[in-house]
Design brief:
By secondary structure, the chain is of the alpha+beta class. Helix content is 12%, strand content 31%.
Length: 130
């Protein structure tokens, strides 16, 4: 099995849309309600748009009413976190553990069983049907 090499910004600019690059590499946020993945209800897996690492199973997706795809749990070993103080408050940012691509923020207002809401940018993920 070959070892994964994190792509350079130049490589990612060639294969991602400008909006995907801005979110994944520059920690941007897409406009609420703009993602077609908000309405995705099929069985499958949501993978990182930067490296295709599986991040979320469809069974953990739910309608949070926020305008972004939301999940109450993630695939173990797929996400890393760090503190984000950009908007004069502390939030927890999460990213793909393999390529470092910014995905979104996690909040403590989600449903059972975890009580978490992983609020994800739709352009940062791709859906793979089962």
């Amino acid at each position: 099995m070959s070892e994964y090499t994190k792509p350079s910004d130049e490589e990612l600019r060639k294969r991602l849309t400008p909006e995907q690059f801005q979110v994944l590499r520059q920690e941007g946020t897409e406009r609420a309600g703009s993602s077609a993945l908000n309405g995705e209800k099929r069985k499958g897996t949501f993978v990182c748009a930067g490296c295709e690492l599986p991040l979320f199973k469809s069974e953990t997706k739910y309608e949070s009413g926020t305008g972004w795809p939301s999940f109450y749990d993630f695939i173990p070993g797929s996400l890393g976190t760090k503190s984000d103080r950009k908007f004069f408050m502390e939030r927890i940012e999460y990213h793909c553990i393999r390529c470092g691509g910014h995905q979104g923020h996690v909040f403590d207002d989600g449903p059972k069983p975890t009580g978490k809401r992983y609020c994800n940018n739709g352009v940062a993920i791709k859906f793979v049907a089962a």
